[in-house]
């Protein structure tokens, strides 16, 4: 089954990318996998503070993917696979693609203004053309009608 891997965060462009991926999955009989990345926190001298910070970050990421899954299910009827991982974003994306032969595309949202996010920059710059799947970069300036028309 064709799976669209979408990396989400709290940005509006990631929600646009998710909608695009969901619409493509519905039209192609595929599925969606939602990935939330957690950056490793900087070392804090006091272990209890560090543990609390890590727990709060994990809970926020879990809440983010749960909310995205609920929106996806409500709007498209798709029940996505959910993944929350901590570490280097590009390395995690590569591992996930290598570990799941059903992933047909990586879908990323690009900010409507300003610099693109780190994954967009990485996979359209440093690692452009090296993934075994297409990278779909969805402009953050698209509205719902435009996404529906293009997907």
TrEMBL record:
CDD domains: USP-like. Residues 2-139 form the UspA domain. Pfam families: Usp (PF00582). It comes from the Bacteria. This is Universal stress protein. It comes from Sphingomonas desiccabilis.
């Amino acid at each position: 089954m064709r799976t669209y891997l979408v990396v989400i965060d709290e940005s509006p462009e990631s929600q646009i990318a998710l909608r695009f991926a969901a619409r493509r999955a519905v039209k192609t009989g595929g599925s969606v996998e939602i990935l939330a990345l957690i950056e490793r926190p900087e070392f804090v001298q006091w272990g209890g503070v560090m543990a609390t910070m890590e727990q709060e970050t994990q809970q926020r990421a879990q809440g983010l993917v749960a909310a995205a899954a609920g929106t996806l299910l409500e709007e498209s009827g798709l029940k996505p696979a959910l993944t929350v991982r901590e570490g280097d974003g590009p390395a995690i994306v590569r591992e996930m693609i290598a570990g799941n032969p059903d992933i047909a595309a990586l879908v990323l949202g690009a900010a409507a203004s300003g610099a693109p996010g780190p994954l967009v920059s990485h996979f359209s710059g440093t690692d452009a053309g090296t993934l075994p799947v297409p990278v779909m970069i969805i402009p953050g300036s698209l509205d719902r009608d435009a996404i529906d028309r293009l997907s």
